[in-house]
């Protein structure tokens, strides 16, 4: 990285996009339960939000050991019934209570020529509309012999006798077309609309049972001048390319990453003096003539982060101190996002899965 610019809003929380859940007939499929199940809160206090992400407002809270009725799962969030309304809680802080974890949902196809959609799970409930043969339904849960569905923005129920489950092909992910990943089973993808923008999209992917799954999507920032065609020291641009991931670091104790972790001290610096034999390495003060320029590591931007293994040959002038770290405005050559997202990614990264980070304008992803 380089020094961050004045005015950086380090504490701002970025909006996080999550895997689409249920919502429309024939729409994207999330994860569902065969029926509503009970989960127990494991955190001392857990916020309930209006949507599946920390960018959504808090509508209340639940406490440790409280039982929750989980309707469905969207990414890393559980949709629950909360005081008569819909709420969402992080799946990291609840535990299934004697139930089976969520399985991948399937698309259901209507087999009857016309099938009534009712307001409740039974023929005694009023019809609120109908669906026709061949129509695709996204099922939320099952109650007896009735499927609960989302129907034109409201809840409806259809008889399970007249719909048939059919496996739905997972949508193709951008990493599915990459040819240069080798044995990497975790990928952090940082993209921008073009070379000149400082705004970035950060996505993480993991290969599970031979298939790529998307884990996270977040907003991020690049160098003040965007991506570099050819990175040089002090150019205020972030390098493009595919890189391995180095040491994780932070000014506090290890947040739970499996990467090698180094706690920053007041004497830690990263040498950016191109004429020094220690160029692009982590060192400790005092310099004692070993360099004339080095970046202080003990700053809020480096509360948490990891080294992007750029310019490992330490070619003078080609750029130094390229990190993934905390930040929400722009950097001088690194990639940054909110502290919450940095910690989440650090916890997710596993060196045994040979993680890599790819940074590129969208138009050049075919290189990978």
TrEMBL record:
Question: What does UniProt give as the signal peptide span?
Answer: 1-17
| Domain annotation SH3b: ranges | 36-98, 105-167
Supply the InterPro entries for this chain: LD_TPept_cat_dom, SH3-like_bac-type, SH3-like_dom_sf
Protein name, UniProt field: SH3 domain-containing protein
Under SMART domains, the record lists:
SH3b (SM00287)
Starting at the broadest rank, the lineage of the source organism is: Bacteria, Bacillati, Bacillota, Bacilli, Bacillales
Q: What UniProt keywords are attached to this protein's entry? A: Signal
Q: Say which domain of life the source belongs to.
A: Bacteria
Q: Which organism is it from?
A: Priestia megaterium
The family database entries (PROSITE patterns) matched by this protein are listed as: SH3B
